[in-house]
């Protein structure tokens, strides 16, 4: 990665895209980085598509990520991850949740859901780590934990220790909802494990191929 780290987080309203970006920014700031972020939400509260830009480093002048410069694409929803693939650097990393949550534009007939978003992104030459964050969250008893699962997944791809990001996640619940501390701790660890397993499987497939 360059001196400035560019992360694009995309998904559907209600998945916690903006909250995830805020937590990533808080973790970066805690380490002394300058951080800038911006969001674009289309009917976010109604399940519309959401994209959030985060840039952090020694000095950041603009929050906007230009096409072809994102270091990491964090796709809370696979089709949205595919739609924003062009924002990644040629050697960028995509992390995608394969748990299907259909965007409203599909239900309205404005957009045909792709048969296999992850395969499409890989076919374009992008490195992809894909896992079912939605099922992991449901297995822990709360679909909203998908946000923390995704943060756990990205933690191994950041230019700072995973513990820093985990601390930023748990800080959110330490005073307001302490009962959720352990659940979020487990969700973060599950996301790390899911990404590690998916990465190992991808590497094995590449070697075998």
Automatic annotation (TrEMBL):
The keyword Nucleus does not apply. It comes from the Bacteria. NCBIfam families: PRK06853.1-2. GO terms for molecular function: indolepyruvate ferredoxin oxidoreductase activity. It comes from Rhodocyclus tenuis. Residues 13-192 form the Pyruvate/ketoisovalerate oxidoreductase catalytic domain. Keywords: Oxidoreductase, Pyruvate. It is an enzyme of class 1 (oxidoreductase). This is Indolepyruvate ferredoxin oxidoreductase beta subunit. Its EC number is 1.2.7.8.
